[in-house]
Sequence to fold (197 residues):
Amino acid sequence: MGELWTNIGISPDGALGVAVASALLYILYSVVLTLWGPRLFSSSSTLSVALLTVLGSLVARAMLGEFPTLGGALVAATTLLVMEAVIGRLRRFSKPAWARRGPRHKPRVVMIDGRFVDRPQRERVTTDADVLLRLRTAGVRHVDDAALVILESRGGVTVLRSGERIDARLLADVMGADLVPEHLIDARGAESEPSAG
Fold:
């Protein structure tokens, strides 16, 4: 029985170590994804996928300590779920200064009428090749058919095809929305909203 416990159990000190490591690594990995996530997720390169996989593996292995056990895995999983719940609640009820300025990676306009917007507007969060790959994946057969392309905060793209218009309200939090020409914007939705008061 003692040998079985050695392979699946964990001591109180070991459990504390796994919990602390899990919490710190959760924060570190969250920071990495906040800073570089959109770039990594929007990239089509094998290197980006490999980097995310390796980082995840390293973090997972480091959480479990010197000798991974079932008990350690349960402590790590519980810690991660608690951290996610606590941080989710904190995000809802209190916004730090950086959150009040807006998220680091907001949705942004990357292409208008088949032409890329200036690179400073895109803040180098994705490459032209990555955007073109996303257009092909979305079924766009000619670049000029993409009237408006928005890179979403999680790395995906929204494609407005030629002849279509977008509700002005959907551009409210999009960086570069001021660059979108009026012929692509449907202002009817905003006009139909009841006025306050």
Strands lie at 108-112, 115-116, 146-151, 157-161, 166-167, 185-186. The helical segments are 2-8, 12-42, 46-63, 70-93, 97-100, 119-122, 128-137, 188-192. The first strand starts at residue 108 and ends at 112.
